[in-house]
């Protein structure tokens, strides 16, 4: 069943604009260069540059001019490296699946492809982002495509955008790296490692295809067979149970048990300063996942960023996982207005699960109001958090 | 041992050995290197404690060894890190540690560049040219889990050219000026050089200066004229006077010219070595050169510059300076000779017609009947001259000079001991001569009313300056001179001269072309022929290169299928490789293990889009050959 997602991604181009701005500020001469190519010293290169300076300085007082030859040798290494790396990476492109959703600590299962459109071998190719290597290929022959699995480096929840990464070649000495834009907008979305937990309490059981709960009513089509009844006007002939009708009691039609699904709304808020923010997001994801698997409709509300994802029973929860990956924790407190706006957005007959890193007096006041309005409110908090409201409290694991 | 990094480390060890100037060091360092890489050494447990102990122990052993063999221990730190390198070879290293070992080897190389840049260093420099980049390639290939650390000519040639270009064109900076004067006290000037017991630079091949000119011989630095009965001293009351004459360039052309390039003026004090009596002198690393009463040239101040170069012109027929009676008395002061010595002098100088003849006879006697030896036993404190003449009869140049000076003084000939250098033979490939520390020498000057101060050298075999022969030693010496004068001494002046020459050559090209237009076009046409030939053959070359592409797994699998089909096992188009393999298993085909392996490699490579590594190609070829043999056998 397709999920009915109300996912509101960040305004398109927002991050791209920020990146462009950063690039232009760093390289003002290359404002109009889309595929910016840069040469940069690696850490090893910086060390050798220091060696050059030291030796050039030492040559001032040395009886021998040969130190300048050693300086020349290392300079030669740097120059050859710069040219070699530039030529190696120049015609290389990266071909990657647009969106890769993976769990914390695992590597993307789909291999990434390095396409070498040049006439020379491309060697020592890596994909780097903030000096971390995501992917490496020792060699891509001329005109060929090489596929390899990315490295197991996506250890933390988050969004790893390949637009932020660089295609880099260190060929041959690793002193200078030539890099250019990956020219792809793919993202690796790393959602938290979910754990098994109890299905969350729900409210507002409604007939819903795929709902796990059975009600007293009967329906004409479903999964659980309830029995037969005499045909009534309006029944479809397709419903006729011919075997029992043949017994002489008139035409009988099949009836099925009513499928009901409840509603649970997860209102998640993490304080930036809290050490349990990641645990809180993981707990929210686990509860939401358990709810979807339990056959309920889950409303996931990101109170930090004001986004919402709704997943129907047994629906595709990839949107939910993506939201968990993208969840960022900006600074700011949870206000009464934000809570009221969030509660106004959830279905009226729905259990309210607050998944929080801590509880404030404002929130307690709002919860009291909700309890007074006969809402089912359940709190999910880190262990040891004191609560002054009369509602069920669950503590999620933080380790 | 195959690791380029380990080989570069060994090159570093040998460079450190050059600093010690000892082949024993080379042997020991190489043996330790081999031992550290042997399987036996892997049983030793390396670690930070061992490495700390190695660096401290190595440095301490270096200091002790230096004291024991009377050599400078300035390189103890280099020896300490050498031991650290050895200790680290006992355990697997992280990338950072490997990089550190390469850097240490680089610094060993740099030390050798500075301290022992002789021709034997050239071999190590060539090794470093290959091994340093190769070590870096190896480090990178380890990072990428490949073992392709080959350094082909496409990398090596530009690397060598860049190193050469930087060596030629890199700016030579210098700190210099009168304030940076590193002076040496006059009396201590050559003490450590002449006296072998003093260690230091005695017999050191290190170059002090290079000289150019005709009929070069003795370069005077200082004179010892005051004798107190036991020791010779520098006369502290030497008067300084200007010696430079106001001569035009045309006038100077008629005087013999000398050019001198001093490597490090700290070893000269404030003295500029000269041969003969200079009439003019030019240079930019000293101020106010003046002549002292002993005929030496002293400066008010002197400093190291980028190019310690000076030139001077000598008077081939200098005027005779008269000596006043008090000065004659001063220059003839001597202890009373013993009866035996008087008797001996009478025998040696019998038949001499004048004072000059007397002096020549004594000089000749000492040269012919005595032995030159460094480190000869010390002479008796009393009756030193008798002990030398009658008992020891051997010693270094200072003893001979001192003995001759005293013997001449006993004949009322004014004398003084001169200390300086003897220029070596000119090289076969250059008209420059090396003056090394080992060329330090001592001789005497005697004054005659009709000749003035005249040089005498009683040291057997002393004086040097023989023409270079064509033996291996002389040839190596000549090469060494070229190496020193054109590589080691490549300074700002030489650089400027080279660049100016190059620019002049470049600028003269249009003029040469204009004069020889026909020849120019002929050369151009001849030059184009290889290009045209290459161009005409390019499509063929391209086809060839396409044909000689690295075979893929498809190629091997296709050959396997062809071989199997000849034996009746045909793969149907709808069959997957695994299904076909199962069929072969069911039919008990021969060489199933090999076919299984080849199929697996084919599947991995074909569907993973990975090229086959070179090693894999060889293995697959062998596998295929085995399968074909097996199938042939069955047929």
Task: Give structural notes.
With 399 residues, chain A is α+β, with helices and mostly antiparallel strands. Chain A has 8 helices and 20 strands. Chain A has helices at residues 14-26, 43-61, 66-89, 242-245, 277-293, 318-326, 336-345, 361-372; strands at residues 37-41, 92-95, 99-103, 112-116, 122-129, 132-140, 145-148, 158-161, 166-169, 176-181, 187-191, 203-207, 213-219, 225-230, 252-269, 297-302, 307-311, 351-356, 377-381, 393-395. In chain A, helix 2 runs antiparallel to helix 3. The two termini of chain A are 34 Å apart. The model of chain A is unreliable at 1-13 and 28-34 (pLDDT under 50). In chain B, helix 1 (4-20) packs parallel to helix 5 (95-115), helix 12 (355-369) packs antiparallel against helix 14 and helix 18 runs antiparallel to helix 20 (592-608). The radius of gyration of chain B is 37 Å and the shape is elongated. Chain B is α+β, with helices and mostly antiparallel strands and 635 residues long. In chain B, strand 16 (440-448) and strand 17 form a beta hairpin. In chain B, strands 8-11-6-1-15 form a 5-stranded antiparallel β-sheet, with helices on one face. Chain B has a 4-stranded antiparallel β-sheet with strand order 2-14-16-17, with helices on one face. Helix content of chain B is 51%, strand content 13%. Chain B has helices at residues 4-20, 23-37, 48-68, 76-88, 95-115, 121-143, 153-169, 191-194, 249-252, 325-331, 339-348, 355-369, 384-392, 397-410, 472-488, 492-515, 517-547, 553-566, 577-586, 592-608, 614-634; strands spanning 207-212, 218-224, 226-227, 232-233, 240-241, 257-262, 271-272, 278-283, 286-292, 297-302, 308-314, 371-372, 394-395, 415-422, 432-436, 440-448, 452-456. Classes of the chains: A alpha+beta (399), B alpha+beta (635). Chains A and B meet through helix 2, helix 3, strand 6 and strand 7 of A and helix 5, helix 6 and helix 7 of B.
């Amino acid at each position: 069943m397709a999920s009915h997602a109300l996912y509101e991604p960040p305004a398109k181009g927002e991050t791209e604009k920020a990146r462009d701005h950063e690039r232009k500020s760093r390289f003002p001469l290359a404002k109009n260069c889309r595929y910016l190519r840069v040469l940069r010293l690696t850490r090893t290169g910086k060390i050798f540059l220091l060696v050059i300076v030291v030796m050039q300085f030492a040559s001032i007082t040395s009886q021998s001019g040969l130190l300048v030859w050693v300086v020349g040798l290392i300079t030669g290494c740097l120059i050859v490296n710069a040219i070699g790396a530039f030529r190696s990476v120049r015609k290389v492109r990266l071909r990657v699946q647009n969106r890769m959703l993976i769990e914390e600590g695992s590597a993307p299962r789909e291999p990434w492809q390095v396409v070498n459109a040049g006439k020379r071998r491309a060697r020592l190719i890596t994909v780097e982002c903030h000096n971390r290597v995501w992917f490496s290929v020792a060699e891509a022959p001329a005109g060929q495509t090489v596929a390899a699995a990315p490295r197991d480096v996506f250890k933390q929840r988050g969004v790893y955008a390949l637009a932020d990464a660089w295609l880099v070649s260190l060929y041959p000495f690793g002193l200078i790296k030539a890099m250019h834009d990956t020219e792809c907008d793919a993202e690796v979305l790393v959602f938290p490692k979910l754990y098994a937990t109890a299905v969350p309490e729900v409210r507002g059981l409604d007939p819903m295809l795929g709902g796990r709960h059975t009600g007293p009513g009967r329906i004409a089509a479903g999964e659980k067979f309830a029995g037969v009844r005499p045909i009534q006007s309006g029944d479809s002939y397709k419903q006729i149970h011919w075997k029992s009708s043949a017994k002489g009691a008139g035409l009988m039609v099949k009836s099925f048990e009513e499928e009901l699904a409840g509603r649970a709304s997860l209102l998640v808020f993490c304080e930036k300063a809290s050490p349990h923010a990641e645990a809180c997001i993981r707990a929210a994801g686990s509860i939401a996942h358990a709810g979807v698997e339990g056959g309920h409709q889950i409303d996931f509300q990101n109170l930090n960023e004001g986004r919402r994802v709704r997943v129907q029973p047994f629906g595709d929860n990839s949107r939910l996982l993506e939201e968990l990956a993208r969840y960022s924790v900006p600074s700011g407190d949870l206000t009464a207005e934000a809570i009221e706006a969030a509660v106004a957005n959830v279905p009226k007959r729905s259990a309210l699960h607050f998944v929080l890193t801590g509880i404030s007096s404002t929130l307690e006041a709002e919860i009291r109001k909700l309890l007074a309005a006969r809402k089912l409110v359940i709190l999910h908090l880190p262990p040891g958090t004191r609560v002054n409201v009369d509602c069920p409290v669950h503590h999620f694991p933080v380790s | 041992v195959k690791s380029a990094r380990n080989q570069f480390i060994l090159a570093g060890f040998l460079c450190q050995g050059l600093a010690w100037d000892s082949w024993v060091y080379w042997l020991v360092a190489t043996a330790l290197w081999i031992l550290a890489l042997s399987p036996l050494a892997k049983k030793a447990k390396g670690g930070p404690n061992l490495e700390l102990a190695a660096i401290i122990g190595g440095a301490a052993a270096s200091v002790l060894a230096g004291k024991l063999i009377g050599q400078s221990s300035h390189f103890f730190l280099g020896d300490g890190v050498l031991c650290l390198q050895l200790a680290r070879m006992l355990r697997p290293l992280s990338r950072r540690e490997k990089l550190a070992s390469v850097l240490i080897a680089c610094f060993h190389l740099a030390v050798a560049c500075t301290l022992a840049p002789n021709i034997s260093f050239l071999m190590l420099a060539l090794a470093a040219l290959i091994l340093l980049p190769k070590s870096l390639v190896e480090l990178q290939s380890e990072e990428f889990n490949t073992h392709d650390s080959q350094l082909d000519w496409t990398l090596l040639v530009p690397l060598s050219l860049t190193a050469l270009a930087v060596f030629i064109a890199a700016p030579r900076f210098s700190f210099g000026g009168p304030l940076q004067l590193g002076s040496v006290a006059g009396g201590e000037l050559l003490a450590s050089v002449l006296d072998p017991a003093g260690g230091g630079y005695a017999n050191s091949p290190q170059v002090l200066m290079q000289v150019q000119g005709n009929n070069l011989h003795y370069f005077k630095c200082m004179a010892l004229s005051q004798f107190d009965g036991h020791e010779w001293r520098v006369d502290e009351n030497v008067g300084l006077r200007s010696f430079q004459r106001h001569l035009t360039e045309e006038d100077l052309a008629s005087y013999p010219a000398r050019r001198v390039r001093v490597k490090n003026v700290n070893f000269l004090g404030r003295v500029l070595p000269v041969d003969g009596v200079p009439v003019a002198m030019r240079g930019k690393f000293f101020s106010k050169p003046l002549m002292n009463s002993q005929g030496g040239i002293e400066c008010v101040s002197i400093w190291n510059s980028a190019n310690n170069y000076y030139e001077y012109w000598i008077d081939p027929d200098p005027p005779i300076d008269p000596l006043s009676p008090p000065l004659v008395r001063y220059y003839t002061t001597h202890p009373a000779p013993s009866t035996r010595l008087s008797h001996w002098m009478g025998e040696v100088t019998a038949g001499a017609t004048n004072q000059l003849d007397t002096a020549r006879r004594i000089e000749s006697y000492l040269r012919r009947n005595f032995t030159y030896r460094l480190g000869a036993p010390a002479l008796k404190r009393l009756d030193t001259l008798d002990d030398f003449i009658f008992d020891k009869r051997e010693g270094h140049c200072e003893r001979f000079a001192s003995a001759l000076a005293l013997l001449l003084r006993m004949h009322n000939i004014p004398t003084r001991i001169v200390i300086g250098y003897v220029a070596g033979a000119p090289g076969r490939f250059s008209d420059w001569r090396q003056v090394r520390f080992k060329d330090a020498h001592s001789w005497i000057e005697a004054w005659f009313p009709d000749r003035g101060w005249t040089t005498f050298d009683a040291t057997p075999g002393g004086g040097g300056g023989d023409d270079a022969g064509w033996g291996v030693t002389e040839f190596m010496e000549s090469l060494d001179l070229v190496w020193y004068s054109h590589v080691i001494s490549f300074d700002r002046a030489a650089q400027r001269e080279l660049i100016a020459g190059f620019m002049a050559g470049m600028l003269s090209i249009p003029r040469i072309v204009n004069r020889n237009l026909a020849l120019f076009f002929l050369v151009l046409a001849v030059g184009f022929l290889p290009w045209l030939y290459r161009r005409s053959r390019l499509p063929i070359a391209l086809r060839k290169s396409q044909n000689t592409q690295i075979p893929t797994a498809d190629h091997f699998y296709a050959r396997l299928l062809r071989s199997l089909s000849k034996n009746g096992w045909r793969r149907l188009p709808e069959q997957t490789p695994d299904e076909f393999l199962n069929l072969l298993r069911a039919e008990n085909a021969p060489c199933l293990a090999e076919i299984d392996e080849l199929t697996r490699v084919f599947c991995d490579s074909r569907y993973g889009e990975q090229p086959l590594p070179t090693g894999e190609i060889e293995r697959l070829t062998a596998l295929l050959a085995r399968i074909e043999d097996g199938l042939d056998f069955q047929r």
